[in-house]
């Protein structure tokens, strides 16, 4: 199957939007189950994830299985019209398995073995772990592969959240096999890795190890390849479970991605084609400067993985999580805004972790639909209200988000950009990506997030933040896109190295010099807190460079320090299009101004909403749906005509969005 073959709305059982949760009945006496299911129906829940961490209950000792309780809960849910997203149960190992086979425990780069007692205590390359896990998957899929309650298979859980990088000897052997497949010969590997440096040349495959802790810095290409290998290794594991499931069941298969600011170890561009339903877990990260904007970026990226089609939010929270330094509870209405922002950006399913708040274990202070306070609580009332809102918005299901601009995002670039021994450790890939995205978000410009090398022909503008690593082919395609009339914005530290981390000599930004009409001789990172004045009244921070114009024109220049008179923002006519370069970290308002000017020149629609108002449009054949999400404490007004679905009233020309509220306006599409 492919993402296009399983519409998310089919998983609801009635063709409507999915509203669901993780349910962990194994944590509760069966006497609680009847009440849980009754309350699920009250809230409008139509899909629950079950058996995510069920291995120890299903197989309490090796080869001895107990299915009575899982049978009972599936029958109860099915009898009440609630579908099941059935986990394979393999995410965390039972104690008997790690006791019998401690060699499956993952090992850190320093050589320390992880102990059992948490979750994901297994090495992705371990054949012993895989043997036992696939045996469980086989037994579970044989038993439930045709069960009428099961609408979706859920492989493992958040693959790679804790164990993505294992450095043990088993992983080392698997890494060497992966390298043989990639390079074929040691000469090719030595050339790619630049092993003439520091006398690192290999004369036998057995000499190669994962990039374990050394007394100095590591080989950067070795580290990059280890990330590539590790992503592929977990993908291979996912495919092995999927293969077993498809022997016994025609039900679609998924796993929950983690497109989020704090997880970076899987290259989901390579995973997405193998998943029947694209699903993501996302939690607001209050360690970031703008958590709400990062939520929107993650949602747009997930939609990109789904090839623009609807996707499912597998997990998010009703309020606080339990794993950040300060677990901030959501205020009144914030859960609705977060949920509907995902819906606005293409999700056709909204699910929470979890249904009933745990009273024991590591996640006992993680919020849930049914909190510790019970039904006499704001969280419960808001959860029920959200179920009612999704019922009102059911016609939005199946519609898609149209974007005139693309944002290029690369997990490979993330791995490489943030490595050791770079010009400045203060310059981080995700910071640059988020800054560019926020400028677009503030301007009301909806973007599709795409991989390097993606077809850009249908976009008027492509924004390329910090694409440090880029292949010749991908750079050439971006250049051709602009030559044919497209417009691009490229930010600093882009185009610097090829896919093997080899610097493109001759001047920076390497692969993009001709496209941008510039040449940089040297980087001049700025120390923390240091800024330089620019001639447009704004400031430069973090990064500057000795940039020479070679065809481009200066749009903004430095006016102080030894780089006074040097361009900081440039624009170059390349064929029929324009290529902009931003060679410093601009302050947010200045970055937005550059983005808006470039977008306007490209013919992109700039909605320019008032500050704090998020605007997104989903479109169908007959109607479009304008989502107006007010993240501010002020009332906003927006010019639009149509019918508002949440409050159920006509909008003759001005929509009023109260502080913290969401409005969704149905607009009749013009007759072709």
Q: Walk across the major sheet and give the strand order.
A: 5-4-3-2-1-9-8-7-6
CATH level 4 superfamily of the largest domain: Glycosidases
Tally of alpha and pi helices: 17
Provide the CATH topology of the largest domain: TIM Barrel
Bin the strand percentage. Answer: 15-25%
Note poorly predicted spans. none
Number of strands: 29
Q: Helical content, roughly?
A: 25-40%
Class derived from helix and strand content: alpha/beta
Main beta sheet: 9 strands, parallel
Round the Cα radius of gyration to an integer and report it: 26 Å
Annotated CATH architecture of the largest domain: Alpha-Beta Barrel
Give the overall average pLDDT: 97
Q: Based on CA inertia axes, which overall geometry fits?
A: globular
CATH class of the largest domain: Alpha Beta
**Integer tally of domains:** 3
Please report the distance between the alpha carbons of the first and last residues.
Answer: 33 Å
Task: Describe the model.
The protein has 672 residues and is of the alpha/beta class. It has 3 domains: 338 residues, TIM Barrel, CATH 3.20.20; 198 residues, Class I glutamine amidotransferase (GATase) domain (Rossmann fold); 56 residues, Golgi alpha-mannosidase II (Immunoglobulin-like, Sandwich), CATH 2.60.40. It has 17 helices and 29 strands. The strands form 6 sheets. Strands 5-4-3-2-1-9-8-7-6 form a 9-stranded parallel β-sheet, with helices on one face. A 7-stranded mixed β-sheet has the order 12-11-13-14-21-20-19, with helices on both faces. It has a 6-stranded antiparallel β-sheet with strand order 10-23-24-29-26-27, covered by helices on one side. Strand 23 and strand 24 form a beta hairpin. Helix 6 packs across helix 8. The protein is globular, with a radius of gyration of 26 Å. The protein starts with 17 loop residues before the first strand and ends with a strand. The model has no long low-confidence stretch (mean pLDDT 97).
